[in-house]
C-alpha cells in the first residue's frame, strides 16, 4: 500500500514535470502535508470563464474560499454550475476529504466544512503559485486529474505564538493563521500574557492596558552577555477586544481554533506591576525588561482569584474555544515560602508544600472554567503536586510529563523543546540571527514522533497531537519570526497530518524546494538551508573517512582540503574522503552556474584518541544523543554556540563516567574537553570533574575544578596537562563527570534536574 502511494506520488511529480513542458500553466503539485493516498490520472481539467461551481450548504465556507481564491488570484470568474461540486458525504470522518479531478470536473466530498476546506487547500496547491498573489494573468487554470483520499493522523495540529515578549500586528497574526490553514493545522495558541507584557484588553482592569502592556526598555543582545544592557526604548501595546474578536472570527473562517493563554500563577510580573496586591509582597515592581523566570507570582488570595475570574470572564466572551490555557509553567515558590498568608493556607487546606499549593491554585481555576463549560490546558508543571482533575497537559520539558499524564488518563499535547521549539537555532552557520540557544534543524522536526515510546497503543490515544512553539524573546519583528517559523512549520504539519509510515525526509525536501515558490508568492521570509552541506566522519575497517551530503537532487558538491574557498572549479565530491591527518575541509553546493548555499567548513583534529575505544556508563538523553559516544573522540568539536548538534552529547540529571581505552599504551601530553553552559535551557556545567588515569599496574586520580569561564559565555573548559598525566604510557582514562544536581532557587530552571552537555575529548 505504502509503496503504491509513493510510486503514485513519484509518477505524479514526473508526469507534471513533463506537462510543464507542454503546457506553461501547470506547476508541479507537491502537496504539503503529504496526503494519505494519491492516484494520478492521465488528463487535465481546465478552470476558465465557463466553469461553474455548486455546493451543499453545509460546505459553503470551503466552496466560497475556493471561489475567492480563484477570483482574487486570476482574471477568471466562476459561474453557478456543476463543473466544481462540493458534496456532503457523511461516511467520511470529520476532517477527512476526497478530492477528485477528472477531465469533466472537480468533486470534493466531505462530511464537514472543515474536511472540505482541507480538500480546497490541497486543490490550491495543485494550482499555479501566481494565484496566491494575483499575478496569474491567464484565462485558464489546468489542473492535473487525480484522486486524493486524505485524513489527518492527529486531531490537535497547532502552532503557538508569544506576543508578550514581542508584539506582532493583527495583520501579521492573520497572515500566520493563513499559513496554518494552508498547512491544514487547526489550532493557534495565542500566548497573551507574560512578565514582559500583558497584551489583551480587559475592560474591568484598565491598568492592564496602562501599565502592564508596556515595559520601560528591553534587554539588548543575549541574556548570557554580561553585563546586561538595555535599549532605553519604551515598548509595548495590546490588542483591543474588537481586534481579538476579529482574529477569532478570521481564524474560525479557516477552521483554526484560537486558544488564549493567560499565564498563572507564574509569568505574571506585568499584571502584578499594575496591581501589586495580586503579589505576595505588595511592593511596587515594574514590568520585566529582560528575559528569564521571575519570582513575582500571583499570591493565592481572594483578590487574585477574583481578579483572575474577572479576567477569564472577559476572555471567555471573546474566545469560544473548548480549551483555555492557564499557563502553569516556571512558577518559583520563593514568594509563597515567605508569605504568612500562603503558609496559613497550606496549613488550613492540609497541603503538603508549595507545589501542592500550586496544584490547589490550578484546581480552583479549573473548577471555575469547568463551571463555564470549558476545559483547561496547561504546561506540564501542572502535574507537580497533583494534576487538576480534567486538565490537558502540554508537555514541553521532554516527554516524561506526557507519559505520566497519558498513563493517568489525561489528554496531552506534545511540544517538547527538543523537537518543537522554533525559537531555537536551525542551522550551524555562525551568521544565523541571534536565538535563545538550542539547535533544532528541519530534519529533526520532521523526524518527530509525537507518541512517546513508553506508551501502549491504548495510552497513546491520549496524545491529541503536537504543536510548534515560538517564544519571541529574541524575535523582534515579523520577518525574523517568519524566518524562525518557516520551513519548520511545514515539517511539523507533516508530522501531525501525514501517516508516519509514509514520511520520507528526502521526498519532503524535494516538495519543500518546490514549495519555496508558493512561500515567495505569499511574501513569507522562510529560512533556506536546503543547499547546505552535512558532513560525517565515518570509520571503515579501522580507517577514517569524511562523507559529504546535501539534501537536494541534481547539484554538485565542490570541496577543498587546503583551507581555500571552494569554487565552481574545485574538485567535485564523488566518494568519501580518506582522513589520515588533521585536515580542514571546505565545501559548498553548486549548480551549473553558481554556488547555491553557504560554504561549509569542518576542521578535523586528528588527535591521539581518534580511533580509540570509548564507553559511557549512561546513555545520552535520546533527544541529544548526537553521534553517540564515538562522537566524543572523532576529531570533531561541537559548535561553539549550539549545543544540539551531533557532536554534543546531553545527559539529563545523571552522573556519568566516560572510559577511553587506547589501542596501545600511549604517552599523553594533555587532555581537554568542553562543557556547554546555557542556564536558560537548564544546562549547567558540573562543578567538578575528576579524571582517573590507568597505567599498566597502577592508577592515579587527578581532580579538576572547572574554571568559572572561558572566552565564550556558553563554554567552560577543563584541561589536564602533562604534570598530572605523568610521562608514562597510559592504557586507559576515565572521566568522572557528576551532574550539577537539582537547580537551586534563584537560578534559571530552579527545582528541575540540570542538563550536562559535553563534546570532544581531545587527547594530545
Ligand atoms: C520556557 S516553555 C518557557 C518560556 C520561554 C521559553 C524559551 C515554557 C512553558 N516556558 O517562558 O519563553 O522557555 O524557549
Secondary structure topology:
Blueprint: H1 2-22, E1 37-47, E2 52-55, H2 60-73, E3 79-80, E4 84-88, E5 97-101, E6 106-110, H3 113-125, E7 141-150, E8 156-162, H4 170-182, E9 187-191, E10 193-194, E11 197-198, H5 206-212, E12 214-215, E13 219-220, E14 229-230, E15 235-236, H6 241-252, E16 257-264, H7 269-274, H8 302-318, E17 323-327, H9 334-337, H10 340-348, H11 354-371, E18 375-379, E19 392-395, H12 400-407, E20 412-414, H13 417-420, H14 442-446, H15 457-460, E21 463-468, H16 478-485, H17 488-497, H18 505-521, E22 533-540, E23 543-550, E24 556-560, E25 571-572, E26 577-579, E27 583-590, E28 600-604, E29 613-616, E30 649-652, E31 656-666, E32 671-676, E33 688-694, E34 699-705, E35 715-720, H19 722-725, E36 730-737, E37 755-758, E38 762-763
Helix pairs in contact: 2-3, 4-6
Residues 329-330, 379, 396, 421, 423, 436, 471, 473 line the site of ligand TNX.
Low-confidence stretches: 1-28
Per DSSP E runs of 2 or more residues, the count of β-strands stands at 38
CATH topology of the largest domain: TIM Barrel
Mean pLDDT: 92
The computed structural class is alpha/beta
Number of domain modules: 4
CATH architecture classification of the largest domain: Alpha-Beta Barrel
CATH class of the largest domain: Alpha Beta
Bound molecules: ligand TNX
Alpha plus pi helix count: 19
Quaternary state, please? single chain
Distance between the termini: 55 Å
CATH superfamily of the largest domain: Glycosidases
Overall helicity: 25-40%
